[in-house]
Amino acid sequence: MSLAPWLDACPIVAILRGVRPEEVEPIAAALLAEGLNILEVPLNSPNPLESIRRLHGAFGERALIGAGTVTTEDEVAAITRAGAKLMVTPHADPALVLAARARGLIACPGFFTPSEAFSLLAAGADALKLFPAEAASPAVLRALLAVLPKGTAVLPVGGVGAETIPAWKAVGAAGFGVGSSLYKPGDSAEAVTAKARALRLSLGAA
Questions:
Q1: What is the CATH number for 102?
Q2: Would you say residue 5 has pLDDT above 80?
Q3: Is 116 exposed, middle or buried (0-12, 13-18, 19+ CB in 10 A)?
Q4: b/e for 46-74, b at 16 or more Cβ within 10 A?
Q5: pLDDT tens for residues 74-112?
Q6: In angstroms, rounded to a whole number, what is the distance separating the alpha carbons of residues 96 and 103?
Q7: What is the pLDDT of residues 43-79, one digit of tens each?
Q8: Domain of 126, in residue numbers
Q9: Angle at CA of residue 171, ends 170 and 175, nearest 5°
Q10: How many CB atoms sit inside 10 A of residue 104's CB?
Q11: Quick one: which pathway (predicted)?
């Protein structure tokens, strides 16, 4: 399993922080209708494993279902059982990358420094999450990509939205994790549709 085909189809990871199980399917359906097919449920959301189970059951063939804010190996096991295929962490922990890869998950761990990036890649990370991106800049990403192995997929996450995506894309970001600019707790499917369209326009894909 690879992240690359999903990013090629649409490089936005929809971070549904705070989503509730009873609303996750209509929100996901709205995102998929707009071409956003990488869906992440952070584990600090209400009953996240149930949301992941519902997403897997309803959309597992059409979407890449992920879990975010993963911080322990027990959580890696739990998200796998729930049907997640993508693990996202907020921090640089090679042990979690190894645990995810051992279970067949795509691993996209968080990092902020070159040292962290290289240690995660050595553990087998499929992609890297530059977090918090608002504390860095596109210039920082350009410098990182100059020294990381060619083809390393780096996704800025944190403060990323329609206004900032073009600058990150211009320096080589492989994708973008988008949270509050796309979904906030309580948003309707219609509101998410409008935000998703704005994000696609920012990519140059109406």
A1: 3.20.20.70
A2: yes
A3: middle
A4: eebbbbbbbbbebbeeebbbbbbbbeebe
A5: 999 999 999 999 999 999 999 999 999 999 999 999 999
A6: 11
A7: 999 999 999 999 999 999 999 999 999 999 999 999 9
A8: 4-202
A9: 80
A10: 9
A11: Carbohydrate acid metabolism
- pLDDT per position as a tens digit, 113-149: 999 999 999 999 999 999 999 999 999 999 999 999 9
Count of domains forming the chain? 1
Collapsing DSSP to helix, strand or coil, 111 comes out as: strand
- Cβ(146)–Cβ(4) below 8 Å: no
- Both tokens of 122, joined, read 């050595």
Q: How confident is the model at residue 39 (pLDDT cuts 50, 70, 90)?
A: very high
Distance CA 65, CA 82 (A): 10
Q: pTM of this prediction? A: 0.96
Distance CA 203, CA 194 (A): 15
Q: How many residues does the chain have?
A: 206
- The tokens describing 102, both together, are 């051992």
Q: Residue 13: which of 49, 31, 39 has the closest Cα?
A: 39
SS3 (DSSP) at 150:
coil
